[in-house]
């Protein structure tokens, strides 16, 4: 009898709380039952009662097979592992609580335990061998120090991730990659400017393409400076003007510096200090603007001193003042390399030594 009650509880409460579809299904059955009672239709009411009871039992069995049975098997598995590893006291042994896939790369196992993390870490290699999975981290639960979370790798991170618009964040965050736990993004409110550094062929242009695509999708104003004449960004040529000569670059950077000053004046008039607050109170909201510069070193290597001075001053002004006004610099640059040291020459014979007696005097 107790098993029947448990199945009814799993099917009615647990499954309804877990699945919105099951909850909606029960609501529909309830509405139909109410209509049958109003209409005094006994056959329909009894039929709905049978359907409801059968549905609850089926859902209870589904929940038991999906949640209870696997948890029971994992509890038995870890109990056996901890016994073999002698990870126990006379009366206590870590107790498995639950298992949850938090991403496609990571599964978290929760344990009730009274052992400190140092003891868990000392058994880490042995637990990995039994689980046949790499343990990424072991941490205490933030709310309960008697619960330990064990993070295990489901699958390794891929070497290549194809872009998908589902990675576009709704906030002022530009997605730049994956970690095992989440999509990694650049929050423009927190990190207004960025360098993307790497060797040739390391993927700088691909990251810039993803960032440009996201900026355009968010209706940001985009400025693209590329002295390779925008060859790597040809797919954006219909949407973005590419600046690739010093005259046009100096002009556009000068205009952006002027725009920065004008925005600061607008902020002062409305007594705000950032673009988010300004857009909340102004009837004419401002667009964020991102200046993408590919191969920054190529831009700054000009031999003309006046051109170099203007470029440096413009970029320095923007990095200092444009943070609050929603104007951002994202620049690609080659990773600097340390030149190899010259090999030390070791004389092979006395004839290779050179002596200087010019300052030698005998008193």
Brief write-up:
The protein is α/β, with parallel strands linked by helices and 363 residues long. The protein is built from 10 helices and 11 strands. It is 44% helix and 18% strand.
What attributes does this structure have?
Rossmann fold; disordered C terminus; 10 helices; alpha/beta; 363 residues; 5-stranded parallel beta sheet; Alpha-Beta Plaits; 4-stranded antiparallel beta sheet; 3 domains; 11 strands
Describe this structure in words.
The protein is an alpha/beta fold. It folds into 3 domains: about 1-85, no CATH class; about 90-155, Alpha-Beta Plaits (2-Layer Sandwich); about 165-335, Rossmann fold, CATH 3.40.50. The protein has 10 helices and 11 strands. The strands form 3 sheets. A 5-stranded parallel beta sheet has the order 7-11-10-8-9. A 4-stranded antiparallel beta sheet has the order 1-2-4-3. Helix 1 packs across helix 2 (about 20-40), helix 2 (about 20-40) packs antiparallel against helix 3 and helix 7 runs parallel beside helix 10 (about 305-320). The radius of gyration is 33 Å and the shape is extended. Residues about 345-350 and about 355-363 have low confidence and may be disordered.
| Level-1 CATH class name of the largest domain | Alpha Beta
**Overall shape:** extended
**Rg on CA atoms, Å:** 33 Å
Give the proportion of residues in helices: 40-55%
Task: Furnish the topology, listing elements before pairings.
Blueprint: H1 2-18, H2 20-38, H3 42-84, E1 95-101, E2 106-112, H4 117-122, H5 124-131, E3 135-140, E4 147-153, E5 173-178, E6 183-187, E7 194-198, H6 204-217, E8 221-226, E9 242-243, H7 246-270, H8 275-281, E10 289-294, H9 296-300, H10 305-321, E11 327-334
Parallel strand pairs: 7-11, 8-9, 8-10, 10-11
Antiparallel strand pairs: 1-2, 2-4, 3-4, 5-6
Helix pairs in contact: 1-2, 1-3, 2-3, 7-10
């Amino acid at each position: 009898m107790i098993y029947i009650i448990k199945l009814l509880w799993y099917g009615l409460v647990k499954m309804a709380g877990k699945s919105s579809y099951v909850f909606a299904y029960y609501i529909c059955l309830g509405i139909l039952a109410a209509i049958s009672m109003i209409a005094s239709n006994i056959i329909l009411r009894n039929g709905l009662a049978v359907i409801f009871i059968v549905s609850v039992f089926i859902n209870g069995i589904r929940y038991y097979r999906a949640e209870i049975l696997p948890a029971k098997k994992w509890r038995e598995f870890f109990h056996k592992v901890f016994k073999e590893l002698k990870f126990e006291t006379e009366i206590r042994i870590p107790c498995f609580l639950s298992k949850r896939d938090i991403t496609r790369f990571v599964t978290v196992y929760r344990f009730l335990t009274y052992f400190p993390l140092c003891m868990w870490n000392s058994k880490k290699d042995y637990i990995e061998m039994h689980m046949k999975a790499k343990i990424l981290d072991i941490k205490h639960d933030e709310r309960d120090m008697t619960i330990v979370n064990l993070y295990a790798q489901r699958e390794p991170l891929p070497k290549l991730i194809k872009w998908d618009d589902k990675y576009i964040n709704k906030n002022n965050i530009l997605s730049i990659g994956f970690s095992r736990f989440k999509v990694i993004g650049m929050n423009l409110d927190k990190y207004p400017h960025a360098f993307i550094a790497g060797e040739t062929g390391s993927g700088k242009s691909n990251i810039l393409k993803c960032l440009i695509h996201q900026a355009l999708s968010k209706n940001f104003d985009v400025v693209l400076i590329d002295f390779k004449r925008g060859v790597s960004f040809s797919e954006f040529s219909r949407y973005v003007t590419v600046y690739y000569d010093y005259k046009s670059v100096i002009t556009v950077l000068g205009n952006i510096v002027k725009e920065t000053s004008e925005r600061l004046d607008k902020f002062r008039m409305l007594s705000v200090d950032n673009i988010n607050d300004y857009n909340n109170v102004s009837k004419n909201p401002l667009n964020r603007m991102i200046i993408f510069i590919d191969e920054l070193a190529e831009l700054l290597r000009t031999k003309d001193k006046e051109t170099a001075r203007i470029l440096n001053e413009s970029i320095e002004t923007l990095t200092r003042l444009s943070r609050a006004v929603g104007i951002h610099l994202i620049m690609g640059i080659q990773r600097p390399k340390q030149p190899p040291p010259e090999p030390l020459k070791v004389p092979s014979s006395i004839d290779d030594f050179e002596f200087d007696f010019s300052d030698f005097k005998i008193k």
